[in-house]
Amino acid sequence: MFKNMMEWQVIEEPETAAGEIYDAFGDRYDFTGSEKEVLRLYLLFGFEDKEIAKIMQSTVQELEGRFRCMLGKTRTNSMRELQALFIRFVLQKLPANLSAEACGTKG
C-alpha cells in the first residue's frame, strides 16, 4: 500500500498471520480501516507520530484524534495500555501447546 515513504518500504500484508491478527484485533474493537493501519504502523513498525502522519498523508492532530478514538473503543487510557491489550489478545490466539512451550513447560 505505502511504498518509498521512508528509507524502506512499508507494505500492507493483510494475508499474513500478522495481518490477520491486526485485522482480528481491529474487528474486535470496531476499528476503522485507518485505525487498523495506525495500529499496525505503531505496533509492528514502531513509527513515531510524525512518521505515521507522513505515511498516512495526514496531520499529527488527525493522528492524535485517531489515537483518542482507539483508546475510547478499547477503554484504555494510553497507547502503552493499548499495546498491553494487543499483546494479551495475541497471546490468547496462540495454540495452547505453543504458549506452553514458550514458557518452558509442556502440556
UniProtKB/TrEMBL annotation:
InterPro entries linked to this entry? Sig_transdc_resp-reg_C-effctor
What are the BP-aspect GO terms?
regulation of DNA-templated transcription
Keywords from the named record: Transcription, Transcription regulation
Molecular function GO labels: DNA binding
Per its UniProt entry, which superkingdom is the organism in?
Bacteria
Identify this protein by name: HTH luxR-type domain-containing protein
Q: What organism is the protein native to?
A: Cohnella herbarum
